Amino acid sequence: MGIESSALLVSAGVASGLAGSIAGLASLFSYPALLAAGLPPVAANVTNTVALFSNTVGTAAGSRTELRGQRARLLRLAAVAALGGAVGAALLLGTPSSAFEAVVPWLIALGSVLILVRDPLRRLVASRQRSVRTAAGPGHTARLTLPMACAVLLVGLYGGYFGAASGVLMLAVLSLSASAGEPLPVTNAVKNIATGAANVTAAVAYVLVAPVHWGAAVALGLGAFAGSWVGPLIVRRLPETPLRIAIALAGLGLAVSLWHQGT
After folding, report:
1. Does the predicted model carry a pTM greater than 0.70?
2. Quick count: other Cβ atoms within 10 Å of Cβ 119?
């Protein structure tokens, strides 16, 4: 891999970390950058999954305050999400590459639409939390019911298979089991760990049996770590809504482009 490709991937990694902080769609920058560097779609996807492990580390490091006292909850969620990630990885590795190439434009489009409707989802989160606080009283604690576990499993599966906007889906799911009075930043931090568990499980599988391009993964991962670490600091100083809308529109454009190339 040449210097230009490496520089492209480091830059895309930084953008991915920032996009994850702004809108939860890190793969919108990293995946097309890997395609631009010459990787075929499946190799780009598995390399992207491995590289974005550093994004999970960065966001977890930046959310230590919100994660205090959440150990038991995180262990339950991470176990279920990790199982989903393993199933998603098996699905990707066990199906023809043509199937992945056919479905990925639709997955990117779905992720982009979810970014556009993120604020209504957040309002739904807040409304749900107020309802839980009113109905359950001060003794309520977060519980992982069977329907909630199934939902987390499915989001983990999606994250292991492709993952764009899996964070948005996980945030909506976790809001339904949030403790009474839990602030949204805490739910968001827990979401990062849950989606990270699915990502890490899939990444381990890909490292063992998939065509990971290690040069690309390292370059992208370094940029993603930097972007996810400083992302919250930068986002506080930038107008979030225009950036988020621009990211979503770019994602829809990418989806249309990939769909057109495959027809």
Report:
1. yes
2. 12
